[in-house]
Amino acid sequence: MKKLTARKLVWPVYLVAALLLLGMGNGTAYGIVVPLAALVLAIALRCYRPNPNSQVDRLDLAVIAGLYLAVVGLFSLAFRVFTQANTAGLFLTFAAGLLLGVVGPIVYTVWIRGRALADLGLARANLGRSLVFGVVLAGVQFFLTLWGYHLPRPVDWVPLVALALTVGFFEAVFFRGFVQNRLHESFGPVAGVGGSAVLYALYHVGYGMGTSEMLFLFGLGVVYSVAFATVRNIMVLWPLLVPLGSFYSNLAGGDIQMPWESILGFVDVLALMMASIWLAARRQRRNLSAMRGGLGTPGPALP
Prior knowledge:
This protein is mainly alpha-helical. It is 72% helix and 0% strand.
């Protein structure tokens, strides 16, 4: 019993330590040390082996590749072609990429593959544990980054909150709920965590980031992916942990200027994302009702 309890504590301790290392201020070292430590722990705890009954789902991999390339392409178009010189073009293509990264996996998962929203980390399972864990991790990150930070005028930071919440939800659903879970099912937990972290880091090329920045983001991606793997619920990441990191990064960078009106745009995008989840949940209920009617017996509750 003591050994089992100790094993359960390893990953939470790792995550807190990895977030504390953000204070060392060396992005390159962070992108090397944090993933390497996770790999060593995975090997030591023997949690790297894939399910012996799992098979490579080629359709999953094809959809991951297609959606990923489309999202990165739209982001590149927004930030490299339109830029802030063309606000309308930038926002429309950026919003399209965000929506595709959430609605695409939901449609594929629920409508095409007949799977549950729980396969995307959108479930009530482990909800309480996820929220508590998310608050603890976000608290560590907050004290390292925003505690005592002198905020500028509200117009210079409030719109960034709306941006961080919307982008954070997209990243949690697409990279962890979708990419990580699908890679995990085909290749095992290490491939799920590592693969989603690599793709998360590389997708920032769409923002115009360089190699050193993406190496740091690889390390941070491993942290987010390990956190998700512990509970399989995106509430451990959103609405606190991932948005806080994004908000601080944009605030400290100081290179994003947005008017108050931009808040409405991000609220609209987030509302469309939530609407797609609601429609998918309705689809699940109809499918369950049909199954119950066909079997004549009560079915399981929604996750």
